[in-house]
Amino acid sequence: MDFTGKTALITGGGNGIGRATALGFAQRGAKVVIVDRDTKAGEAVAAEIGGQARFVAADVTKSADVKAYVQATLDAFGAIDCFFNNAGIEGTVTPIADYEEAMFDTVIAVNVKGVFLGLRHVLPVMLRQGRGSIVNTASTAGLTGSPGLGPYVASKHAVLGLTRTAAGEVGAVGVRVNAVCPGPTDTRMIHSLEEQSNPSDPAASAKRYHGSIPLGRYATPDEVAAVVLFLSSDLASSVTAAYYTVDGGRTGSPPAPRSFANK
User: Fold this and answer.
1) What is the pLDDT of residues 5-35, one digit of tens each?
2) Most exposed among 77, 97, 160, 227, judged by the fewest C-beta atoms under 10 Å?
3) Going from the N-terminus, what domains does the chain have, and what CATH number goes with each?
């Protein structure tokens, strides 16, 4: 997976999966633009990478900010070869019957509108280039229901719909659009969900999550980043309109009893 001479643009690149992916692109030769509303974290990642990186502060829900990060990438490096459309939030853990409308609007704005605006303003660049790869961050919550996370689940189903639709619209000119669907991953988000699900004993929430995963643990940001890098690379040149789960088998099969695994 050699990205020498290519430019990668990553939203939500200051932390977690976005940070791991930004570093992964840079380690493989790419010029990298990191977009985040967390200025301190984004600048830190850019500094860690060095001269081949730029940071752009942006709110992905605002079209003007999205246009600005696209233009900043073109001004710095002249092209956008890979776009990791990754920024997202979890919202609160609350039943739909009690969910606050304002929080619903916020989750949908970041997770759906933010992805849409990224596609809306990056795709014209890639269409002019006649090449490019986009990976949207969905979730295993885009494949199943998850009690207490209705807006988040709805938003990630929407990301998969946007992914498939965009892939069909632009494939003929050499632009690919795929999605990665992480399960529980060792980032701020899963620890927020642990805390919200059981404020008095977050460790019990973690144990419950681990127990639902055949591999028995959370994915790491680097493990998710590896799949994003594959989908962005020429190794995946015939892969589009696809989604890849990175969830330790959680959506594919319930974990077998340990006694069964030992036989």
Assistant:
1) 999 999 999 999 999 999 999 999 999 999 9
2) 97
3) 7-183+221-247 (3.40.50.720), 186-218 (no CATH)
